[in-house]
Write a structure and sequence with these properties.
ATP-binding, 3 domains, Ribosomal Protein L25, Chain P, ATP binding, 17 strands, single chain, 19 helices, PhoH2-like, Phosphate starvation-inducible protein PhoH, 6-stranded parallel beta sheet, alpha/beta, 514 residues, Rossmann fold
């Protein structure tokens, strides 16, 4: 692109110049978010400031983080595309079109060179020791030195605002963002005649026809409604065919209490969770809609079933704090992860309570008797645990509190609650895998998790796109929304949106108003 040269004339890269070509200057966070972004700017000029290489160099040593792995991937890609110093400075043509260059801002290295843009930058952002300000300065240098329109691409909103303040066009990285659309409804209503509805109820399904099924995708949930106001939920199977939902009266964990769907959307969710033909389920829902509780309940019921293909349940979530981080946590890995995974222990406590619930429908002797002894395996699982390896000859320490029922599920291996950061390299077979808070992940991280799922396993991604604490993703670019959009219409994938809160009236009111 341009370089610090002994000559008084700047060296120019082999840039394409036309009315349609633009020059994009990439910030570090774009490359960390998607190392392949270098190949996704079509037939345009791509510029990487040398300050970006410095930031990548500092991050590449992070061995156990996705950022460190992505930084190393970017270095390998740049090494292949820019094999020597001359190609770095002058630029090279990319295989998919466009050019790639690494630039050194001569306005910062030569005190005798000034420009209106740099004077404006120094007046607004005087501290040029900050990497963000230096990257903005580099983009201004490119804007002044080369003809095509220059755009700074960054996922940092503050950098976007600062760039615009000094007269530089700036935008977010849009390649992995889903299209902006109108507010999505939880489900569609399909008008049918009363005779078609009666046929559907008696036969379990019928052909909607091409006109009525236009716009529906495979495994989309709908509500059939007749002119008389009669309704029936259904799932579209493709080819115009719809079928009734297959859901039991209730689901429950071994030795636990029965859980019933409380609304139509939860019925959709339970149907998808219990269908073995669906290997991936995505679910959007605000706080209190039952995403986690229903997922775990359906997973435990299926692992308890003798005919089930699942050997156990795996639950995980990204480790991203809400608000200010409290720093490193002491103890073993289990002790470190306990605060992050406490929501799942709470859900297991609801499903398999230590004390019988006070509600009348759960307190009857008939239900209690049924929960105690369905078969010998359940009885053994909830009996006193076998001696554990360790001190006191494998016995629990005197005075130690008894294990809670869900703790016995974990110790038996039926339930595995683990850290997401150690999933790379694994092959997860015959497990029901629940990934909570998936909206905190990038599309690449979600891809990494899903590609770990082996034959015979099922993955459920749940989260709320409106609750994002990761500074580098938003409601359109997070991994949960991206995965849902790309997998939409695939026969082995289904999506459900939960809108009605069922945790409590207070939680529902707070989720809507606060």
């Amino acid at each position: 692109m341009g370089s610090l040269s002994r000559s008084t004339e700047p060296q120019h890269a082999k840039l394409k110049v036309s009315a349609k070509v633009k020059t994009f200057v990439l910030d570090t966070n774009v490359l960390l978010h998607d190392p392949q972004s270098i190949h996704k700017f079509e037939d345009n000029n791509l510029v990487i400031p040398v300050e970006v290489l410095e930031e990548l160099d500092a991050i590449k040593t992070e061995q156990s983080t996705e950022r460190g792995r992505n930084a190393r991937r970017v270095h390998r890609i740049l090494q292949e595309l820019l094999p020597d110093s001359r190609s770095m400075l002058e630029g090279v043509k990319l295989p998919g079109g466009g050019t790639l260059s690494v630039i050194i801002n001569r306005y910062l290295t030569d005190a005798n060179l000034n420009s209106p843009a740099m004077l404006r930058l120094r007046a607004v952002l005087p501290d040029l020791s900050k990497k963000d300000n230096r990257i903005i300065a580099c983009a201004l240098f490119v804007q002044e030195q080369f003809p095509p329109p220059t755009i700074l691409v960054t996922k940092d909103v503050n950098v976007q605002l600062k760039a615009r303040a000094v007269g530089l066009e700036s935008e977010d990285y849009l390649n992995d963002k889903v299209p902006e659309a109108a507010e999505e409804r939880a489900y569609r209503e399909v008008p049918v005649t009363i005779y078609e509805l009666q046929r559907f109820c008696s036969e379990g399904g019928f052909d909607l026809g091409a006109e009525a099924s236009a716009g529906l995708v495979v495994n989309e949930y709908v509500l059939l409604r007749s002119d008389e106001g009669k309704t029936m939920p259904a799932r579209y199977h493709g080819g115009g065919m719809i079928h009734r939902l297959r859901i039991p009266d209730f689901v429950k964990a071994p030795g636990g209490i029965p859980i019933r769907p409380r609304n139509l959307e939860q019925q959709f969710f339970v149907d998808a969770l219990l269908d073995d033909s669906i290997s991936m389920v995505t679910c959007f829902g605000k706080a209190g809609t039952g995403k986690t509780l229903l997922s775990i309940a359906c997973a435990l019921q299926q692992t308890h079933d003798d005919a089930s293909r699942y050997d156990g349940v795996s639950i995980s979530r990204p480790v991203i704090a809400l608000g200010k981080d409290i720093g490193f946590l002491p103890g073993t890995l289990d002790e470190k992860m306990k605060p992050w995974l406490q929501p799942y222990f709470d859900a297991l406590e609801v499903l398999v309570p230590s004390k019988p619930p006070k509600e009348a429908q759960f307190a009857s002797k008939k239900v209690a008797k049924k929960n105690r002894g369905r078969n010998g395996d359940v009885a053994n699982l909830f009996a006193d645990p076998q001696p554990m390896q360790g001190s006191n000859n494998g016995q629990r320490a005197p005075g130690a509190p008894p294990l809670k029922p869900y703790e016995r599920l974990i110790r038996s291996g039926l339930v595995e609650v683990e850290a997401l950061c150690f999933i790379r390299g694994r092959s997860i077979a015959r497990r029901f895998f629940i990934l909570d808070e998936a909206q905190q992940l990038t599309p690449h991280e979600v891809k990494t998790v899903i590609t770990r799922i082996a034959e015979g396993s099922k993955i459920v991604l749940i989260g709320d796109p409106a609750q994002i604490d990761n500074p580098y993703v938003d409601s359109r670019s997070n991994g949960l929304v991206y995965c849902c959009n790309r997998m939409r219409g695939q026969p082995m994938a289904a999506h459900i949106t939960l809108t009605k809160g069922e945790r409590s009236r207070l939680a529902e009111l707070a989720a809507d108003l606060l």
